[in-house]
Amino acid sequence: MTRDVLIRVSGVQMMDGDEDNVEIITTGDYFLRDGKRYIIYNEMMEETGENIRNTLKITEDKVEILKRGAINAHMVFEKNRKNMTRYVTPVGEMAVGVATTRISLDEQENSLKVLVDYSLDINYNHVSDCTIMVDVSSREGARLKLQNGIGEV
Question: Does domain 4-138 sit in CATH 2.40.128.20?
């Protein structure tokens, strides 16, 4: 895969029968070093316009998300393990726990798809069951499908 990539990160949180969906699409960098896949991209907070630099480090059995900027966190997802982190935001700090149940990795010549299922705790209380999907494609020749509420664009 090329270094210059298109990244789609989508997440689903399921709480008390309700589902909350979030999705961002952006450009970034991809590289492979020592058997680990790295994805780096910037994200802007809608509320404040502040920037967050995200670094994902991906192996077959572990996904790490490092956030720096308006939000600071180092989240580690390992199958059948619970990991704790400090999640620092402009409005305060939280203790965040992630208990990962599944990591799925599908790597092709010009794409990488990662799926992580996990349980989310905030300040030691279960909040929701979540799924995060990261879809990375070489920018050159990338095919992007957006939903407009009626069908694909």
Answer: yes
